[in-house]
Design a protein that fits this description.
With about 400 residues, the protein is an alpha/beta fold. Helix content is about 35%, strand content about 25%. Bound molecules: cytidine-5'-triphosphate.
C-alpha cells in the first residue's frame, strides 16, 4: 500500500460516530488506517464498525498484544496521528503527557504530525483549562481543526461542534501528500527575538516568544509548502516537517537568511530583530562592584532590507514584513510597507492588551502593496497564521502585485 499510514484515535464524544465516515474517507483515499478507541469512545461506537471499514483490527487497551508493544508499533508506523473527536479530557491528557490508555501512550511515542479535532460543549471549550491545553498542544506543533459553531449534544448550540470529516480529510491530505495551496512552494519564516550579548550572562533582548512565526511555519507546512524556520532562542517545539535553523543574534539571523532567501518563493519576516547591539560584548562578567557600565550601541543589519535589496526587480521571493506598531496602526503600516519595499505588511498593535508579544492570541492588519487591507480580528495565532497565508496565496497568484520596483 503506497498511501500514508494514519493512526486514528477516537475519544468519547457524541461525534464519535462521524469517525466512521472519516475512516471510510481515509481508506478510500488510499490510507492504511489503524483505529484506537478510548474507553469513552466504546460507549458511543463499536470496534466492529471500524474493523469492517479499515480491514484491520481495532486496538483498545495497552495490555492487549503486549508482546508486540502495540502502542510503540502503531505510533512508529503512523505518518500522522489524528484524534477525532478530541474530547476536553483527551486534550488535557495529551497536553499533560499522561499515558493512561493506548491512545495517549501511543501519542507519547509518536513523533510525526498530530491533528486534533476538538468537540465539546461551549463552556468546556471556552474554559481557561481547555484554552491552555489547546495552546500547549499548538505550541508543540499540533494542527487543530475546528471546532465549528453549530448544534451540540441535546438542545445546545454554539462553538464546540466537531469539524466535519471532509475538513479533517483535507488537513490530513495536505500533511501527508503535500497537497494544498502552497504545495511545491518554498517558504522561509523568521521567528522569535534575537539576543545581543552584553557579557557572558547578559543580553539585550525583546518580548517575542516566537509563537507567531512558529504558527506561520506550521500552517505553511500544513498547506504543502517546504518550510525553513530561522528562529531566535525559543522553547517552542519545531512543527513537524519543518526544517529549523537556530540563531541567537541579529547578525546570525542575517547570515542564515542571506544564505537561504534566494531560492524561496515566500519570505515571512516575523522575527523581532534587534535594531542595535552593544558594540562589543565583554569577555568577562560585568561586576556590580565595577559600577554602572556604559553600553554603547551600534546598528545591526536590517535583515528584511537585505532580502528586498537582493531580490531587486525579480518577482520572487514574495516578501512579507511584520510591524509592531503603537498609535495609528494603518497609517504606520502603510508608511512602513512603502519604506521597506515589501509585498505584504502584517501590522499588529503591540499596545493592545492580550495580543501581540508573548501572548497566545493576535489581531493584525494585512496590507497589500497595491492597496487592499484585511483586518484579522483577535484569534489564536494559528488562526491568524491561516489568514495571513490566505493573503500570501492571493498575492502569489497575482504576479502584478510582486516584483515591480518601488
Ligand atoms: N527587521 C529586520 N531586521 C532588523 C529589524 C527589523 O529584518 N534589524 C524586520 C522584522 O523581521 C519585521 C520588520 O523588519 O519584519 C519590523 O519592522 P519594525 O518592527 O517596524 O522595526 P523597524 O524596522 O526597526 O522600524 P521602526 O524602528 O521604525 O519601528
Amino acid at each position: 500500500m503506497d498511501g500514508p499510514r494514519v493512526l486514528l484515535g477516537v475519544s468519547g464524544g457524541i461525534g464519535a460516530y462521524k469517525a466512521a465516515a472519516l475512516a471510510r474517507g481515509l481508506v478510500t483515499a488510499g490510507a492504511t488506517v489503524d483505529v484506537v478507541l478510548t474507553r469513552g469512545a466504546r460507549e458511543f461506537v463499536g470496534a466492529a464498525t471500524f474493523e469492517g471499514i479499515t480491514g484491520r483490527p481495532v486496538r483498545g487497551e495497552v495490555w492487549e498484544g503486549v508482546a508486540d508493544a502495540t502502542h510503540v508499533e502503531l505510533a512508529r508506523a503512523a505518518d500522522v496521528l489524528v484524534v477525532y473527536p478530541a474530547t476536553a479530557h483527551t486534550l488535557a491528557r495529551l497536553a499533560n503527557g499522561l499515558a493512561d490508555d493506548l491512545l495517549t501512550t501511543a501519542a507519547l511515542v509518536h513523533r510525526g504530525p498530530l491533528v486534533l479535532a476538538p468537540a465539546m460543549h461551549t463552556e468546556m471549550w471556552e474554559h481557561p483549562a481547555t484554552t491552555a491545553n489547546v495552546a500547549t498542544l499548538r505550541d508543540r506543533g499540533a494542527l487543530v481543526v475546528g471546532p465549528a459553531t453549530g448544534p451540540l449534544m441535546g438542545v445546545d448550540a454554539g462553538p464546540g461542534r466537531l469539524a466535519e470529516p471532509d475538513e479533517v480529510l483535507t488537513a490530513i491530505a495536505a500533511i501527508t501528500t503535500g497537497a494544498g495551496d502552497l504545495a511545491g512552494r518554498r517558504v522561509l519564516v523568521t521567528a522569535g527575538g534575537t539576543r545581543e550579548p552584553i557579557d557572558p550572562v547578559r543580553y539585550l533582548g525583546n518580548r517575542s516568544s516566537g509563537r507567531m512565526g512558529f504558527a506561520l511555519a506550521a500552517a505553511a507546512r500544513a498547506r504543502g509548502a517546504e518550510v525553513v524556520l530561522i528562529t531566535g532562542p525559543s522553547a517552542l517545539m519545531t512543527p513537524p516537517g519543518v526544517e529549523r535553523v537556530d540563531v541567537t543574534t541579529a547578525r546570525e539571523m542575517d547570515a542564515a537568511v542571506t544564505d537561504r532567501a534566494g531560492g524561496q518563493d515566500v519570505v515571512l519576516m516575523a522575527a523581532a530583530v534587534a535594531d542595535f547591539r552593544p558594540d562589543a560584548a565583554h569577555a568577562t562578567k560585568l561586576r556590580r562592584g565595577d559600577g554602572p557600565p556604559t553600553v554603547t550601541l551600534v546598528a545591526n543589519p536590517d535583515v528584511l532590507a537585505g532580502v528586498v535589496a537582493r531580490r531587486g526587480a525579480a518577482a520572487r521571493p514574495l516578501v512579507v514584513g511584520f510591524a509592531a506598531e503603537t498609535g495609528d496602526l494603518e497609517a504606520g503600516a502603510r508608511r512602513k510597507l512603502a519604506e521597506k519595499g515589501v509585498d505584504l505588511l502584517v501590522a499588529n498593535d503591540v499596545a493592545a492588551a492580550g495580543v501581540g508579544f508573548d501572548t497566545e492570541e493576535n489581531a493584525v492588519l494585512v496590507l497589500h502593496r497595491d492597496g487592499p487591507v484585511r483586518a484579522v480580528p483577535r484569534a489564536a495565532k494559528a488562526a491568524v497564521a491561516t489568514a495571513i497565508l490566505d493573503e500570501v496565496v492571493t498575492a502569489l497568484g497575482d504576479p502584478g502585485r510582486v516584483g515591480t520596483s518601488g
